[in-house]
Amino acid sequence: MLENYIPIILVLVIAAIFAGAIIASSRIFGPKRPSKAKVMPYESGKNPIGAARQRFSVKYYLVAMLFIIFDIEVIYVYPWGVEFKNLLNSHGMFAFWPMFIFLVVLELGFLYIFKKGGLKWD
Amino acid sequence: MNQSTFLQILPFIILSAGIVVAILVEIFTTKGKALLPAFFSVLFLANSLLSLAQINVSSNLYQMLALGGKAAFFNFIFSIGALIAVMSSVNYVKKYGANFGEYYILLASSVLGMMLMAGALDLFVVFLGLEVMSINFYILAGINRKKKTANEASLKYFLLGAFATGFVVYGIGLIYGSAGNTNLNFIINNFTRLLKMPLFVIGLGLFFVGFSFKIAAFPFHMWVPDVYQGAATSVTGLMSTIGKAAAFSVLIFAISPVTFNGAEHIFRPYFATLAILSTLYASIVAIAQTNLKRMLAYSSIVHAGYMSIGLAAGNVYSVAGIIFYLAAYTFMNLGAFGVIAIVEDENDGKTDLKAFAGLHKKNPMLAGFMALFMFALAGIPPLAGFFGKYYVFVGAIKQNLLYLALVGITASLISVYFYLRVVVYMYFKDEEEDFEIKTDYPGMFAVLVSGIFVLIFGVFPSILMKLITSVLR
Amino acid sequence: MSLNVILFFVLALIAAVSSVMMITRRQAVISALFLVINFFALAGIYLLLQAQFIAVVQVIVYAGAIMVLFLFVIMLINTETEEKFLERAKSFKIFAIAIALLVFAEMAYAILHAHPSALLPKISENVSNGTIQSVGKALYTDYVVPFEAAGFLLLSATIGALILAKKKFD
Fold this sequence. Notes:
Chain A has 4 helices and no strands. By secondary structure, chain A is an all-alpha fold. In chain C, helix 1 runs antiparallel to helix 2 and helix 2 packs antiparallel against helix 3. By secondary structure, chain C is mainly α.
């Protein structure tokens, strides 16, 4: 069972080592001659204005919330897709309709935000 | 699925299809939203009749949803209550500044959640029903974002409500962990065995604590006054009546099968404490309130206390009494909030006692109905509120819980003061502020319907009581 | 020691350390990033418990979406006033510690004392309860009522998000 995950673990370990090594090597081998202009926070080549921590508009939050809602929707679809063939064999079209209704309800929500301009950046 | 099952889930299908259609109307038409109140009124009326017709047939859907019987009776109350709330919203939301089609869509969705709660046979359905109801209430409470009080109400309600839901979910988790099943019937059948497991007891306790928040009983009442005052009056009417009824329906469904089988005392310490604290505390604090919405918020805590007396007694009489009380309370309170919604002005003002001074001369009909609801809430015979209390207290006395009945009666005597004060202001004081009350026909209709139900249930309580005892068997 | 046990201890260590780091950081953004690590470690533990579906949900929803929301919240609020508030509210710390201890005691009890309930079916060696197939089988047949209810819950949430957060809502 767990043996199936060894490749994934390997990938994770290699990725961690690789990323760590890159950062460490630039720390170790790179020259360090700091000056005032160099340690200044980078802001597209201009001199920084004000503090980095500013309050963002709630618009971003709306996008994040909509993202979560549809993310959760996808979670529901995922096991259905995996199990659909077996369900179709054992339950016939009953395997199809619950998900159909679920998706209609949620896409209605999507249509709602779309038509109400929830995705517009005003 | 046979035909009778289909007929029984028809209310759910009608309401969900109605929500879908309403969203389509809201999206694709510009003037269609003016028709939404009428559309949902018809839906709720159809649902209430359908539920009433299904009361004597009981079955279930996949062991998840109880159909007919108690669930159908609660669905009847929810549908009628929602109908009245929609009626009193029509003109109110216009002056409140929330005349969106979404208002009615969210209202209908919250009712869908309540119907799921009342029919829940599985802890999953309990949780999802609770969330569908609560999420819609949070949004409805803050639907007008320009009002600071509404924002405060929405945020407070959301934070404390989410906290309470957390308790419920943790409780469900522990219950599932010890029972290995989320089916309510399974848990009830194995109740005595499960009760020996400490984790099950903790889980049950957390579950009850979470629901005590939702029914607004004393130690868990902090959100009630601010939320009830800050939210739109029509929304407050909705969540204080059928929202409370939905939370009680879950408690009744979970508790009554256990207590009816000779274990009345198991939940008594908890609910008796709730009852004593809620009734005495809130009835005393309510005396100091001058804002009517705030006063009714405390009165709602008192009523939750009376109903908890029924849960503490736990016999058939008292549980039937709670259900009667919930039905009666729904109409009295919706009526009272309906009157406030008509009197209230554009800026949330005119909800003080002062605004009601001399209402009798300004609008005798409105004052008459308000007096009727106040008498009913105070429990003066022969109105619906009296018989609600009567049945619950008699149930407690039959269980040898005289002290609970006495506490309830003491609290009722205290509350007479603040209910009758409204009547005194309306009839025996001269008006202090000169303002005009706009005629609001749908709102008046809602008040009228509530008033008729309060009178019918008060004069002929046996009609309703027969129905309730038949579903409890 | 089997691979399972070694992996469990590694993951548990990561989870514990990252959660301690999370609550001790002063910068809220850094706390949030430690929370991501914690979520990943938990997902690994779920995998060890044969709960593949929960593990996937943990990564996609919690480590993905919820964390995005957390970061947005941190950016939305004025963290400086929050920090001042926390300095004033020292007594909250005692309360928080008490609650944490209570939950810890409860969990320790659950793990040490509560023997698997007699009502539970015996768990066989190769459990398949947590696989995506078995979740799918239950969710779309026996649990179809709560499933559709969840659809309506998400619909309300969508509408509510727009009503409460859209800048110009008519």
